[in-house]
Write a structure and sequence with these properties.
Layout (H helix, E strand, L loop, with lengths): L40 H5 L8 E7 L6 H7 L1 H10 L2 E7 L5 H6 L6 E4 L1 H4 L3 H7 L7 H7 L1 H9 L1 H7 L9 E4 L5 H6 L3 E6 H7 L7 H13 L34 E4 L5 E4 L5 H15 L12 H9 L5 E5 L11 H5 L8 E4 L26 E8 L1 H6 L2 H12 L1 H8 L7 E4 L2 E4 L6 E4 L2 E4 L17 H9 L2 H10 L16 H27 L7 H10 L2 H17 L1
Parallel strand pairs: 1-2, 1-3
Antiparallel strand pairs: 3-10, 4-10, 5-8, 5-9, 6-7, 11-12, 13-14
Helix pairs in contact: 3-18, 7-8, 8-9, 13-21, 17-18, 21-23
């Protein structure tokens, strides 16, 4: 299938220019390792001892053997080390079971790339308060000019990257949440449906909750898989798919932002609102009519795959990877071994259930995608780097990665070897999609040069350019569909609780969320009548529901003041 090469308004211009390959200037020179004029670290320090400086860097990989070699042998990363004169010793963890113990033992490296926002107690603020992560402000003028320019030129993104006290403590892949293509690159999950089933039954892709109900009912009653049995699962709720229907009711899994007619904002907890009751009523109806079978089972991703690729599921929580027809292991490829003419369609987020309109008079559509200006994987320089005398070198090599040249090595690899530039646009060279032996596995040759999706090291703009230019049409269309809609009701990842607020929130939610989960099941399965909803709300509030919203409300106010 033909790849889609889309023009990209990249996030921002670093080092005074747009990222290489995204410009329409066909005469623009693309930097390679051979002609890069970047000074080596030891040339700046004028210390011969720094010729051998090595930065230790922990990343979370996987259990397969090849991960232990992946980062070390990737040619784009090798070029970055050669250019900057900073060697990197990658320490690959196979999972998060060793993540917290290494901090307890004070045995952590100079740099850490991981889901620090989720895994570290107190999140990134806790890491900073515990003196684990360094304050990057101290390095920005001399050692991090690219990052310094970023935060000066783009105040909205800068606000998302700094702490409430003004400290910058981490870097990450950067996205412009106002740019269509960047939003698409950050939106890889959403609702998916069998287009061939819709076609068989004469149905359209649902856009409202009522339309969803009607389509699912049609899936249940009209044998769309054509095997003569009533074995279709209209919507497979495995892997928390039910959450994706919350958006129609303005609810998220965490507190949300509510605005009145005058634009005044209040942070509320959606699971104690009238809108949540309406959602429960709808889900109860779906359950009674046999439209959802596994919402409360201990289901797994493997179970979902079995349902979708076995020609049983009509709709499900989709991943853009499911649509990749060029991947023999994708859902669509596996299903077509059974149903050659099977088709998937990404479903837009449903219009709001209350029928509200946006400022242009169109049906309002909340977007459930977690679109943020930075990625879930974040990178910090630790206090160990300062103790080891490698903090400045770490800042220097990370900043190079954030710049125009470094981001190209991280996403495309090396010009003339893995990619070429034609008419101002980058394109993978012939043979890069072919698989090669790499330790205990086989991988596309392009991944021996760069892997912007798996190697979530600091990147810039080029991430979305690469994804949209090189992923299949089905993958890109899914991402673009799920990126549409208004995310302003969500408290995004950049709004972080302080260490004290995090402790308070954990104390409040300890028993509260367990109770909410139990009652959700009872309400939807009908063992508890919805006439008990008011009593449920009172119980949630007694367990700290209002306090939970207040904690996040205070954090949101601090975020707006940054």
């Amino acid at each position: 299938m033909k790849k889609r090469a889309l023009s990209l308004a990249v996030v921002m211009a670093l080092a005074g220019t747009m990222a290489a390959g995204c410009s329409s200037d066909s005469n623009k020179k693309t930097t390679t390792a051979k002609d890069d004029d970047t000074k080596k670290y030891y040339e700046l320090t004028k210390n011969d001892k720094d010729k051998d400086i090595t930065v230790s860097w922990c990343v979370i990989g996987g259990k397969d053997t090849y991960y232990q070699h992946y980062w070390k042998e990737m040619k784009g990363l090798q070029a970055i080390q050669d250019i900057t004169g900073v060697k990197i010793e990658f320490q690959v963890k196979t999972g998060y079971e060793d993540y917290l113990p290494m901090f307890t033992a004070k045995n952590y490296p100079d740099v850490i790339t991981a889901k620090n926002l989720e895994q570290y107690p107190g999140r990134l603020g806790g890491m900073y308060a515990d003196n684990v992560s360094l304050k990057l402000n101290d390095y920005m003028d001399e050692w991090m000019p690219n990052f310094s320019k970023l935060v000066k030129d783009y105040p909205d993104i800068a606000r998302d990257l700094r702490m409430d006290d003004g400290a910058y403590t981490f870097v990450s892949a950067i996205y412009d949440t106002n740019d269509e293509d960047d939003r698409a690159a950050a939106s890889q999950y959403g609702l998916a449906i069998r287009q061939d089933w819709l076609d068989t039954l004469g149905e359209q892709v649902p856009t409202t909750i009522d339309e969803w109900h009607n389509v699912l009912l049609s899936f249940k009653n009209n044998d769309p898989n054509g095997d003569g049995q009533s074995n279709e699962e209209p919507v497979c709720m495995a892997s928390s798919g039910w959450k994706y229907f919350l958006a129609a009711y303005g609810i998220d899994d965490d507190p949300v932002i509510q605005r009145d007619a005058d634009g005044n904002e209040t942070v509320i907890y959606g699971f104690i609102t009238d809108a949540y009751k309406q959602w429960l009523e709808e889900m109860r109806k779906w359950n009674e009519e046999g439209l959802i079978y596994n919402m409360f089972e201990n289901t797994s991703l493997e179970k979902r795959e079995e349902k979708v690729t076995g020609n049983l599921a009509g709709a499900w929580k989709g991943d853009a990877l499911h649509f990749d027809e060029e991947d023999s292991g994708s859902y669509i490829s596996k299903l077509r071994e059974v149903v050659p003419d099977a088709k998937f369609t990404p479903v837009p987020w449903p219009y709001t259930a209350d029928g509200s309109l946006d400022e242009d008079g169109n049906p309002k559509q909340w977007c459930f995608s977690d679109i943020a200006s930075f990625d879930r994987d974040t990178t910090v320089i630790t206090n160990k780097a300062k103790e080891n005398g490698t903090d400045k070198a770490a800042a220097y090599v990370i900043d190079y990665m954030l710049g125009e040249k470094g981001s190209t090595y991280l996403t495309w690899g090396i010009e003339g070897e893995s990619y070429e530039v034609k008419n101002g646009e980058k394109k993978l060279m012939s043979g890069m999609e072919e698989t090669v032996e790499f330790y205990d596995t086989k991988i596309p040759k392009k991944y021996t040069y760069a892997d912007p999706i798996t190697v979530m090291l600091p990147q810039f703009g080029e991430m979305s350019s690469y994804v949209l230019a090189n992923k299949s049409e089905g993958y890109v269309e899914a991402c673009k569909t799920w990126a549409k809609g208004d995310t302003s009701y969500k408290v995004n990842a950049a709004c972080q609780l302080s260490v004290e607020q995090q402790k308070q929130a954990e104390q409040v939610t300890d028993g509260m969320k367990e109770y909410i989960t139990k009652m959700r099941k009872r309400f939807i399965e009908g063992t508890a009548p919805l006439t008990e909803f008011d009593a449920y709300v009172a119980q949630v509030k007694s367990k700290g529901g209002d306090q939970f919203a207040e904690i996040w409300g205070a954090a949101y106010e601090n975020y707006k003041k940054r």
